[in-house]
Amino acid sequence: MTYIAKPKFQHPGLPRNDLGYTHRDYEGKVSTLCAGCGHDSITASIIEACFELSIEPHRVAKISGIGCSSKTPDYFLGNSHGFNSVHGRMPSVLTGANLANRDLIYLGVSGDGDSASIGFGQFAHSIRRAVNMTYIVENNGVYGLTRASSRPPPTAARNPRRASPTPTTPSTSSRSRCSSAPPFVARSFSATSRSWCR
Ligand SMILES: Cc1ncc(C[n+]2csc(CCOP(=O)(O)OP(=O)(O)O)c2C)c(N)n1
Ligand code: SF4
Ligand SMILES: [Mg+2]
Question: Which architecture does CATH list for 23-146+167-191?
Answer without folding.
Answer: 3-Layer(aba) Sandwich (3.40)
